[in-house]
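Student: I would love a firmer grasp of how sequence relates to backbone shape in proteins. I am handing you a single protein, as its sequence and its fold in token form. I am told such tokens are a discrete way to write the fold. I hope you can help me see how the letters and the tokens relate. Take your time, and here it is.
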Amino acid sequence: MKKIVTVIQARTGSSRLPGKVTKEILGRSLLIRMVERVQASVLRGCIVVATTREAEDDVIESICKDNRILCYRGSSFDLLDRHYQAGKWQEADAIVKIPSDCPLIDPLVIDKVLQYYLDNNYDYVSNLHPATYPDGNDVEVMDFKTLETAWKEADKDFEREHTTPYLWEHPEKFNIGNVEWGSGLDYSMSHRFTIDYAGDFVFIKTIYESLYPAKHNFGLQDILELLRTQPEIALINEKYAGVNWYRNHINELKTVSAAQTKQL
């Protein structure tokens, strides 16, 4: 049986929305709301919050200690190293990468991607290449030895900062799998459930206040139904839909097209 370690990367030093993971939703920090949703996954294994060694991120370590969550502190910029070292610390066979800006992530999606990884012989599986799920349901799973190869060989700044590009940018080296929504549906550029801007926080807070706690582990279908019946909620952060980090490296990325990102 493989030991799975789910790493949630988190820091307070966001340039666009500083301290976003410590902002409160219904009395608990966004980070804890995020962890709660990952904990609802059946296959997630051990959960580690991976933050930086910067003094400003002492608060993240404190939140983890108060809530009995494992915390690893590492490089501020080199998230590839942070994930590798966290996995090595926990003697992982496989690493799941989920960023802390996904507090609406559906536990069923986490399990779907993980089950696909476990049922097949892939080095790396995600639901991102190409993406079809709403932004903010990012799940990436990789064999630890595969992660170690990237850790040793990746030499571009964006490959270190974003952890996994070296893997999916080299399909000739790695056996890569992808999980899609299905039925030809693609919500990746039209629905934004992640947090990077003040409007995103208002959107996420509104979703929680509308669905929680009546539906404690509400999922994607619950959110989509809410947006269908109350379309004004989607307008809160609509202008950011499709905006992601790809836009800053579109000329360097080989397996991502301009249609998969949007400029502000």
User: Anything to note?
Assistant: The chain has a mean pLDDT of 97. Residues 154 and 180 are 27 Å apart (CA to CA).
